[in-house]
Design goal:
alpha+beta; Helix Hairpins; 6 domains; 5-stranded mixed beta sheet; 5-stranded antiparallel beta sheet; 22 strands; 34% helix; globular
Length: 746
């Protein structure tokens, strides 16, 4: 390894840094773009280490585009939001050659010509990303998000060594490109083997591993994952504009931005269908997951003429390939227990190669699916990868069934008890899955912990997949509430590795988690309701339950018939709701319509949980810990009484909002403000919607609101309404704030 003189000056350090950056970038290009390395990994690592040492000694001279930036910087607190320069859209899909023909004829009709040139590319099954280069340097990388705004994942994307941080001379002044980040199949298998050897949980599939990597707040974790990227789309460009997709591909290659390994061209429907068939064969040679072919109009001028719908371009279509099917032997059936206690039967198979990987297990979904297909141990079965990822048993090859085979009886197989904890299992009316009722079931604890600690739940920083698994494995946690009894020393010395290769959680992480646990004690009732992981109780249902009740005690008392006369009308109705749970036609619901606000299933599941032994144990321990979550949006007036009381409900009490389009802040920020002011937030527009808060590119929700004559507000109108007197019903007009009266580009 080259060495510097003993007395290093700023000039010599800067010169050596520049020399190393040039040399390392050259080796990166040889390795990642040409697959022709000329130095060993050790020699490459020595060069990189020397550059890192120089940058540590001379931080003021370090370049933001240095190859060392790919190894990841310090962890970040959260992802900021980035607005795409051009909206990211999805594609219309089809599995039918006939629909490809319909697509082609529609283009001919709209363009008035049969002279349509197209390109056909492999559809990479990865995570969509948008990158922006400004003056040749990477400015940011963002996820698709809602199409208008995505998460800033720049630091994680920088760790992809295949990706240039600086474009060569002649780059456009502004270049926004779209692509798919993926994990090569070979690298994915190696990563999983390494994780298993280290005692970590294996990833389910390459796309799952890729998505999880890009969501890491610590880029140093992303740097250890073997990601790659392929670009296929153009957002905004300034200074050098290609006239077609083909010219855009040429530009990508010139800029060192990887595009599809092979692209087909077609000028007729027949040629396009032939290219799709050829691609289906070719893609099996690729080292990454693909699930279809994308057909695009080549000429950008014709693309502009064809235009787009609210969701997808009219000039492109994705043809999804039928999943590959193979036969293999079903050796046995095992049962897995999920976070909510659902018991899922799994087929243990004779290993077989399908869709690019070897499969030895496949889901059987549920007991009814087994009975419907008459699946038996010893059968020869047909399996496929649903969506090219999840193996599933499609059917039984009956002519190959052994003469002595016996029908499979789910309950007999598990002896009527949970295979993890031995607890009671039930199949409730209207449901197909059997479920374990044990809140302390070991198979459920680790996944419950991860859910309990989630950002929208109790936001317990540090309780990720590995930590949760190890806390359970080491016998330190049997229920989520056990977290509040952990001591700092115990956490700091928690071994996240193996006995042979220990890796402790550490004092700093322990202190951070304990501080988060202390904050969680004061979090509102809605967050706790969501965190518990009660089936069918999501964020919205939890908020509405918290609106109707002050604390857990009030909800629990609903099942106490002795207190029937003492509870409010809303609580009485919730009891009726529980009695009539999972019945679509319950006349008792009519006076209050709580079923529409909370949901029959969510309300009933909540009462079921709190009335069970495990739920009672949860409440007892919560009290013993001195934790008593209170509602921060309490307003128990039933829905049928008109507007909810404004006394504790705020300026927007009794109103229901839908939020759409691109706003100045994340939608959840506005949703929280609406809820704090007493309003409710829904995901879809209906006649019961009080207001639509609309930003740029509002799309179909705006159109529906206008059809239903729902008042539409922009941000200015929202702020004016929030600052005004308490709301007493949607106004006929909102001065200066109705989006219909303003030019919002909607």
């Amino acid at each position: 390894m080259p060495t510097l003189p003993t007395a290093v000056t700023a000039d010599t350090a800067a010169a050596r840094m520049a020399e190393l950056i040039t040399e390392i970038n050259h080796h990166n290009q040889l390795y990642y773009q040409q697959a022709a390395p000329v130095v060993s990994d050790r020699e490459y690592d020595d060069l990189l280490r020397e550059l890192m040492d120089l940058e540590d000694a001379w931080p003021a001279l370090a370049s933001p585009n240095s190859p060392t930036q790919r190894v990841g910087g310090a962890p970040i607190d959260s992802f900021r939001q980035i607005r795409h320069l051009v909206r990211m859209m999805s594609l219309d899909n089809t599995y039918s050659p006939e629909e490809v023909g319909t697509f082609w004829q529609r283009m001919v009709r709209l363009l008035g010509t049969e002279d349509i040139r197209t390109v056909i590319e492999p559809k990479v099954d990865g995570v969509a990303v948008s990158l922006c280069y400004e003056n040749g340097r990477l400015k940011y990388a963002a996820t698709r998000g809602d199409g208008a705004t995505g998460d800033d994942i720049t630091e994680n994307v920088k760790t992809i060594r295949r990706l240039p941080l600086k474009l060569p001379a002649g780059a456009p002044a502004l270049l926004e490109v779209r692509g798919e980040i993926f994990m090569p199949n070979s690298a994915f298998r190696q990563l999983n083997d390494e994780r298993e050897a280290a005692g970590d949980v294996r990833f389910v599939n390459p796309r799952n591993a890729t998505a999880g990597t890009l969501k890491q707040l610590d880029p140093r974790i992303a740097a250890k994952r073997p990601l790659n990227v392929i670009f296929h789309g153009l957002g905004r460009i300034e200074g050098r504009t290609p006239g077609s997709v083909s010219e855009f591909h040429d530009l990508l290659r010139e800029m060192g931005l990887r595009n599809a390994d092979r692209v087909w061209k077609a000028s007729s429907l027949g040629e396009a269908l032939a290219a799709i068939q050829e691609l289906d064969i070719f893609r099996r040679t690729l080292d990454y997951e693909t699930d279809g072919a994308v057909v695009k109009v080549d000429d950008y001028a014709q693309q502009q003429l064809l235009g787009v719908t609210s969701k997808a371009p009219r000039w492109a279509m994705a043809y999804k390939f039928a999943a590959e099917r193979v036969e293999t032997l079903l050796k046995s059936i095992t049962v897995q227990v999920g976070r909510t206690g659902v018991l899922t039967p799994v087929a243990e198979l004779e290993p077989v190669f399908v869709s690019g990987s070897t499969v030895s297990r496949a889901t059987l979904h549920n007991d009814e699916e087994i009975q419907r297909k008459d699946i038996r141990v010893g059968d020869t079965v047909v399996i496929e990868k649903a969506g090219e990822i999840i193996p599933a048993v499609v059917e039984v090859v009956l002519e190959k069934r052994p003469a002595d085979s016996q029908p499979f009886h789910f309950l007999n197989h598990i002896h009527g008890r949970c295979p993890s904890c031995g607890g009671e299992v039930v199949k409730e009316e209207g449901f197909v899955a059997w479920r374990c009722l044990g809140f302390s079931c070991p198979a459920q604890i680790a996944t419950r912990l991860k859910h309990f600690a989630g950002r929208k739940m109790l936001d317990l920083e540090g309780v990720g997949e590995i930590v949760a698994d190890k806390l359970v494995e080491r016998g330190l946690v049997r229920t989520p509430l056990d977290l509040f009894e952990l001591e700092e020393h115990t956490l700091a010395t928690l071994n996240l590795g193996t006995e042979e290769k220990a890796r402790v959680f550490g004092a700093k992480n322990a202190a951070t988690l304990l501080a988060a646990l202390e904050r969680a004690k004061a979090m509102p009732l809605s967050r706790w309701l969501f965190a518990i992981g009660i089936p069918d109780v999501g964020d919205s249902a939890a908020r509405e339950l918290a609106r109707l009740h002050r604390n857990f005690g009030e909800i629990a008392r609903i099942s106490d018939k002795e207190e029937e006369r003492a509870v409010s009308p809303a609580l009485k109705e919730l009891r009726h709701l529980a009695k009539g749970k999972r019945k679509e036609d319950n006349p008792v619901l009519a006076p209050y319509q709580i079923a529409q606000e909370v949901g029959q299933v969510a309300a009933a599941e909540t009462l079921d949980f709190l009335s069970q032994e495990s739920g009672q144990a949860f409440l007892t321990k919560l009290a013993a810990l001195g934790i008593d979550p209170q509602s921060d949006n309490y307003n128990p007036q039933p829905a049928s009484s008109g507007k909810a009381k404004t006394g504790g409900g705020g300026r927007l009490a009794g109103t229901t909002w839908v939020i759409t389009g691109t706003l100045s802040q994340p939608r959840e920020t506005f949703a929280d403000r609406i809820r704090q002011a007493g309003g409710k937030v829904s995901g879809s527009v209906s006649a019961k919607t009080s207001y639509l808060l609309a930003g740029d590119e509002a799309g179909s929700k705006l159109a529906k609101a206008q059809d239903l004559k729902v008042p539409v507000l922009d941000e200015a109108g929202f702020e004016a309404l929030l600052a005004g007197p308490a709301e007493s019903g949607p106004p006929d007009s909102a001065e200066g704030g109705r989006a219909e009266q303003m030019d919002l580009g909607l």
